[in-house]
Amino acid sequence: MPTVPLPDDLRDALTDRLRATVPSRAWPQVERLIENYRGTTPTAAPVLRDAADAAAYAAYRMPATYAAVRAALEALREQAGAWTPATHLDLGGGTGAATWAVAGTWADAPAPHTSTVLDWSQAALDLGRDLARLAELPAVRDAAWTRAPLGGTPRLPAADLVTVSYVVGELTAADRGALVDAAAAATRGALVIAEPGTPDGYARIVEARARLVAAGLTVLAPCPHDAACPVTGTDWCHFAARVPRTSLHRRIKGGTLPYEDEKFSYVAAVRPAAVPAVPAANRVVRHPQIRKGQVLLDLCTRDGALTRATVTKRHGADYRVARDTDWGDPWPPPATAPDGGQRPEPAPQSQP
After folding, report:
1. Angle CA(137)–CA(141)–CA(144) in degrees, nearest 5?
2. What is the CATH code of the structural domain delimited by 8-270?
3. How confident is the model at residue 136 (pLDDT cuts 50, 70, 90)?
4. Residue 345: partners with Cβ closer than 8 Å, 6 or more residues away
5. What whole-number distance in Å separates Cα of residue 66 and Cα of residue 247?
6. Which of 30, 95, 205, 221 could form an S-S bond across to 265 if both were Cys, CB 3.0 to 4.6 Å?
7. Is the pLDDT of residue 343 over 90?
8. Looking at the DSSP assignment, which residues form a beta bridge with residue 310?
9. Whole-model pTM above 0.85?
10. How large is the average pLDDT for residues 93-120?
11. Domain ranges of the chain
12. ∠194-200-206 over CA atoms, to 5°?
């Protein structure tokens, strides 16, 4: 799985702003936030109610949220090629984890984009603005932080890229569909929705994905198709990103490991006329199994099915690439042939 560290300026801002937050003070807020993160206590009011809640969230959840959204955005960018957003709406952005992730993903764009963080918690917006004050990237430093309701039928400004990260599960069932529909209507280019990598989080992504397809968007990642998700029964589709922990992060979480693995589910969809891109041929949906002389890849394919590909040494270059392929990667990975053309499809692969 990819390792996704916080950018240095965000790490330093969090440490400087929250160094006084100790576990004994943060735990009451953290326990309540965990319930909202898991989607077991949907609400029609802001989850982050005051400065203490916002500080607890930023210390406890912001690094993992950043990593999950950054991984989803990288998958989107890999398929979207040269497309770059000029405007970004961070819907329910709270302290701005997705805004930092978008800025990092397109840090090399010819011109910086503008970001608007929209949330109904003034405490989260205040902390997010404070953290962004000394950011290196102008898209973060100059972001607009706007208070607005998320329930009901929100009226949203249009943007090239819309992100909705770890928000849908916080809402009542009556508000979820309306929020996704409003986000789709506001999307001029691409929309990314991320939720916890739990069965309930995955179910919310499946529901949102169906609404996006109905709204005329094309799914670009992780699915290589717009058909019904083939993952059913007791299984669920999710991915993971490794998050290096800072000393502050370890203190708040009461952990000793220098990292944690954030599991997440997501969907990235685009308006085809604005983002002329195609989904991956296949997507690796489990940890690859590397055995002697072969690599087993569990794939979701473009025809909407699950299959296992066996790549062996006789496949030459594809075998070497498969050994470096990770959970969540497209298969075959985009590459350029020696003559400058597109890399051909891999050799036929045996099925178990």
Report:
1. 130
2. 3.40.50.150
3. very high
4. 281, 332
5. 17
6. 205
7. no
8. 296, 350
9. yes
10. 95
11. 8-270, 280-352
12. 60
